[in-house]
């Protein structure tokens, strides 16, 4: 199955500059109207769970919503959004894997691996751990080539698994081995080794690398057959390698509630991709450790979370969504430069 990307790079240019003057004014107006129906310009995209890729001068931003939203930019300041989502035809395997799935996909991740782009995403029933992580691929982001369905990476089932197969992040370790970090609530953040097709390698099982513990409630790890999320409010992992360290970024607490959201970003690091991930005080993230890196300032953002980290023009940059106070809790794109030091990292001033 192939997914049609209705609004590729070549179709999202807007304005009369893309039109031939020989068409005449009436032709130009008609063509412009058609383009505006397919795309729109924005400086601060409204996004949730953003991830980004760069190819030949163009930044591509993907996020939850509308079959996975897609924006492009040449400077990360002015964005062009596509009105049509990436996925226009939900594959049957998602319905088979996730009974009750409403066709709302979320939390994408994107990586270039062995010369091909791979876009992973989550499908689930909100608040349950009957979930699955899917995979798409294409050779170039800057083309109208359709995304190809690569099927399911892995799935979780309530009452069977004590983890939730959502919020994927694919990371290639320094030895070239691909891994998948994922997870939300239940027994926390999971890691599993992948094969060269970016599916779970034969014989591999996910294992936990980070948890949260509520002070007055037992962790859901003590009740692995529960299909309820429990109090382990940790999700949205992203692993970034920098100067000999693997940094694990996670989101603590609660998203998706506008001005009532409490999301915040925590981080730890390890010399090995499998952990242990420790914070600046030596606390293991597997036992609730983690340094708060970024949280709502109650001035610009009520809460922030679900981040990704990239090297942009030689410098590390964090992107995430923040619940904008000026916009009444609408999630918008947030960008912050990072500063690394001997003890970890911080937001650059």
UniProtKB/TrEMBL annotation:
- UniProt GO molecular function: arabinan endo-1,5-alpha-L-arabinosidase activity
Provide the GO biological process annotations.
Answer: arabinan catabolic process
Q: Where is this site: Important for substrate recognition?
A: 306
Q: Which residues form the active site?
A: 49 (proton acceptor), 235 (proton donor)
Q: Where is this site: Important for catalytic activity, responsible for pKa modulation of the active site Glu and correct orientation of both the proton donor and substrate?
A: 167
Question: What's the superkingdom here?
Answer: Bacteria
Q: Which residues bind substrate?
A: 49, 127, 164-167, 184-186
Please provide an example of a Pfam family that matches this protein in its UniProt record. Answer: Glyco_hydro_43
Instruction: Write down the EC number.
Output: 3.2.1.99
Stored SUPFAM superfamilies: Arabinanase/levansucrase/invertase
Which InterPro entries does the record match to this protein? GH43_arabinanases, Glyco_hydro_43, Glyco_hydro_43_endo_a_Ara-ase, Glyco_hydro_beta-prop_sf
Name the keywords, alphabetized.
Glycosidase, Hydrolase
Q: In which pathway does it act?
A: Glycan metabolism; L-arabinan degradation
Family of the protein in this entry = Belongs to the glycosyl hydrolase 43 family.
What PANTHER family would the database entry show? ARABINAN ENDO-1,5-ALPHA-L-ARABINOSIDASE, ARABINAN ENDO-1,5-ALPHA-L-ARABINOSIDASE A-RELATED
Protein name, as recorded: Arabinan endo-1,5-alpha-L-arabinosidase
Source species of the chain: Segatella oris
Source gene?
abnA_3
């Amino acid at each position: 199955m192939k997914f049609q990307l209705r609004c590729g790079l070549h179709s999202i240019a807007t304005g009369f500059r893309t039109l031939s003057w020989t068409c005449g004014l009436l032709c130009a107006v008609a063509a412009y109207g058609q383009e505006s129906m397919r795309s729109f310009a924005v400086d601060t995209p409204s996004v949730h769970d953003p991830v980004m890729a760069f190819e030949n001068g163009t930044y591509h931003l993907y996020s939850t919503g509308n079959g996975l939203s897609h924006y492009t930019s040449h400077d990360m300041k002015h964005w062009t959004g596509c009105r049509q989502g990436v996925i226009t035809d939900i594959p049957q395997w998602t319905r088979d894997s996730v009974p009750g799935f409403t066709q709302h996909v979320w939390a994408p991740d994107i990586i270039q691996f062995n010369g091909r782009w791979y876009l992973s995403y989550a499908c689930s029933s909100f608040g349950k751990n009957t979930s699955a992580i899917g995979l798409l691929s294409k050779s170039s982001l800057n083309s109208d080539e359709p995304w190809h369905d690569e099927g399911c990476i892995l799935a979780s089932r309530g009452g069977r698994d004590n983890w939730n197969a959502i919020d994927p992040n694919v990371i290639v370790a320094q030895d070239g081995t691909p891994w998948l970090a994922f997870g939300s609530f239940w027994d926390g953040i999971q890691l599993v080794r992948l094969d060269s097709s970016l599916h779970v390698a034969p014989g591999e099982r996910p294992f936990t690398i980070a948890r949260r513990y509520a002070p007055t409630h037992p962790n859901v790890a003590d009740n692995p057959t529960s299909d309820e999320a429990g109090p382990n409010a940790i999700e949205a992992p992203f692993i970034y390698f920098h100067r000999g360290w693997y940094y694990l970024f996670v989101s603590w607490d609660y998203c998706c509630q506008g001005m009532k959201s409490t999301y915040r970003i925590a981080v730890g690091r390890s010399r090995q991709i499998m952990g242990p991930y420790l914070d600046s005080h030596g606390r293991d993230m597997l036992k609730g450790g983690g340094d708060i890196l970024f949280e709502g300032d109650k001035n610009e953002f009520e809460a922030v979370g679900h981040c990704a980290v990239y090297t942009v023009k030689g410098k590390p940059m964090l992107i995430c969504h923040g619940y904008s106070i000026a916009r009444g809790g609408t999630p918008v794109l947030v960008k912050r430069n990072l500063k690394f030091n001997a003890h970890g990292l911080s937001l650059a001033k």
